[in-house]
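Q: Here's a chain of 218 amino acids. Please give me its 3D structure as tokens.
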Amino acid sequence: MRVFVSWSGGKDSCLALYRALKADHKVEYLFNMLSEDGLTTKGHALRKEVIDAQAKAIGIPIVYGKASWEAYEDEFKKIIKDLRSQGVEGGIFGDINIQEHRDWVDKVCSDVGVKAFEPLWDEKYEELLKEFIDKGFEAVVVSAKADLIGEEWIGHRFNWEFIEYLRNQGLDLCGETGEYHTLVTYGPIFKEHIKILEIRKNVKDNKWVLEILKFQML
């Protein structure tokens, strides 16, 4: 089936893409939603050029929408309708266990006549994390709730050390309720490695945000 992947740049959407490719779906596009100014991603506050670099490294075209939270759903459906007109039949999403998220995905996809797929749905955290790390994916922590996760973990490699920290703090290991977000920099579906060279750590709305100032493709 010809599909798009709802793409945040993080570990869950990346693993969902990996599984979609393994299932022989033809992934035509990645799809990301940007803030109203079109400069950063809506969910993870990453610069657009970083997401562009990911798409280039993977070798799949990316399309963008941009909207306020109030206009988010309408813009999301507008983009999907356009993809459907180009022959896309389904969408791949990286939700794990938040029913509200899945209900929204099912609704918006149904409204525009495409089928929603959730390849990670209801799987055990340990199995998903092990698959991501054991398959050779690499990622960094790019944002986190400041009252839950310390500054020292921002920009840190996403690995078992960080996961153990989350476990010891009693936090959701996959960050399903927004405890943290990641950026994937390499993996088995990447043709190039994104090397982060210069960063700045900011606090916005009680969240740590990693601003990637400079990177290169290797």
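Q: Can you summarize the key feature?
A: Residues 125-217 form a domain with the putative n-type atp pyrophosphatase, domain 2 fold (CATH 3.90.1490.10).
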